[in-house]
Amino acid sequence: MEESLGETISLAASDRHSLTAYTAGDAPRGLVVLQEIFGVNEHIRSVVDRFAAQGFSTIAPALFDRIEPGIELGYEAADVERGREFKGYVSTGDALKDITASADVLLDLEMPVAVIGYCWGGSLAWACSSRMPGLTAAVGYYGGEIAKMKDETPKCPVMLHFGETDHAIPMTDVDAVKAAHPGIPVHTYPAGHGFSCDARGSFDAESHSKALDRTLVFLNELMSI
Fold first, then answer.
1. pTM of the model
2. Whole-angstrom distance between the N-terminal and C-terminal Cα of the chain?
3. Which of 23, 80, 99, 208 is 20 to 30 A away from residue 112, measured at CA?
4. Is the separation of the CB atoms in 116 and 31 below 8 Å?
5. How far is CA 195 from CA 94, 142, 160, 191, in A?
6. Would you state the pLDDT for residue 5?
7. Exactly one of 43, 161, 181, 193 is catalytic; which is it?
8. Is 166 a catalytic residue?
């Protein structure tokens, strides 16, 4: 197990909901990491740490704190079911309030801020791109609800990543997103859902590496690094 580089802080959303967030890094550009349906668990904290090492001030809000504090799940079948249940208790609107509270920590320091999300967080990253002001960029990995929100218009540059054998996201959905937004880079990989999570059996190292390289080039170009 890697030693954590960051710390957990407390935030208040606009509706006075109190939540925690895991943060790491001290750089002049910000990145908000949006969780999967498993909470801000060890894996998501490692993602925060890794992006901090890449030169970002990085923060991951605990979106499940609206249910109860400290929810962290693994990746077994029972965890997947619990995660799906928990996700159903948190509306997109409430999640955006918590994400905004996290982004504001970075925006208040007058730095460019992007969001990146995985699974549920990938869908939320897309929603952020169209509904949250002030973002420099958004990156979404295998967001299953993006196709349902394809008619929304991003207010910042967006990059999307999908697995070609994703059991939860048919390629017809990916094609629909591409058709609705031909100017957005939408990359697909010979992999399944969760291919970028090295804690899951679906992890695909080659696809993960290629997607990460593309993401970093995209963010670096937009965030003046």
1. 0.96
2. 30
3. 208
4. yes
5. 27, 9, 13, 6
6. 77
7. 193
8. yes
